[in-house]
Amino acid sequence: MVSRTGDRVYRGAITFFAVCIPALLLLVALEVFAGAWPALAKFGLGFITSSEWDPVAGTFGVAPAIYGTLVSSAIALVLATPLALGVAIFLSEFAPRWLRQPVAFLVDLLAAVPSVVYGLWGVFVLIPLLRESVVPFFRDTLHLGATPLFTGPNYGPSMLAAGLILAIMVLPYISAVAREVLLAVPRSQREAALALGATRWETIRDAVIPFARTGILGGVILGLGRALGETMAVTMLIGNRHEISSSLLAPGYTMASMIANQFAEATGDMHLSALMAVGAVLLVVTLVVNAIARWLVWRVSREARA
Question: 3-class DSSP state for residue 165?
Answer without folding.
Answer: helix
